[in-house]
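Aim 2 progress update. The chain analyzed this quarter is reproduced below.
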Amino acid sequence: MQYDEKIGLLKKLRALKQIPERQLTALAEFLRPKPLADGAFVFAEGSIGMSLYFVSSGRIRITKLMADKTHKDLAILGPGEFFGEMALTAEAPRSAGAVASGACVLFELFRGDLDRWVKLNPQQAVHFFAELVHMQSERLRRTSNELTLHFNLGDLLADRSRTAPDFLTQVLERTDMHLEGPWSGAAYLCGADGVAALTASRGDPRFAEAAKTPAFAQDAASAWLDDLTFHVVLPGKDKPLGHLVFRAPKVLSKEDRDEIERALTAVSRLVSTGLEIHLTTNA
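Predicted structure tokens:
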């Protein structure tokens, strides 16, 4: 990688934006570009951490091995974000794994190199660590919101007296409450023929009217339909059990879109389990 290209990429990293170019040039000497192919491991859960990583391009999935031997995505990080920061303070096993989601480029910063840079630039180091703490706080807030949502949806799973349409209506309401801003939403229940029928809608009346005619293919996967609308598939054994559609009140940043996609995709698995229970119980 050419030196000018490296400096240009570093300037786009959120944690480094407050650092003057002269000090950034000094830090650039220690930051090593690390290109990765899709599916490549940055590090495995349980490995000993020695460095921090900044995402320059592409996306990284932070994953955790669960008790049933499956992996759960804890976060999806995009350009400008960082991960592995605990390795800067302690030589301890990584609490989660990191995997490339598509081709990406990282910048790796070893703990010893950071110590040397801090000694040379103590004032700029204060801004650097303050931004890391701020970004960590935002990440923790998003995680707390997601845990609260999962707890609220878990309550619905325990109440088996609800019909499937009522269950989906309550899921839509509780999920919509956890999205920041006046989102709109619609819930669909699939019949035996796989055709989705509108069960409930919330928010903007214009969205509610448009929701009467589903804008997604019956066999589509969870994904953004456009800049504002995310489609959640509720998978069953052979065909979808239902669908949820959420529409944002304004265009979101790529970081926010990635975070919402990860959170709603995780919710889909929980809701699918609950919907299957309610369909079976009230058949």
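The mean pLDDT is 81. Residues 160-281 form a domain with the Beta-Lactamase fold (CATH 3.30.450.40). These observations will guide the mutagenesis experiments scheduled for the next reporting period.
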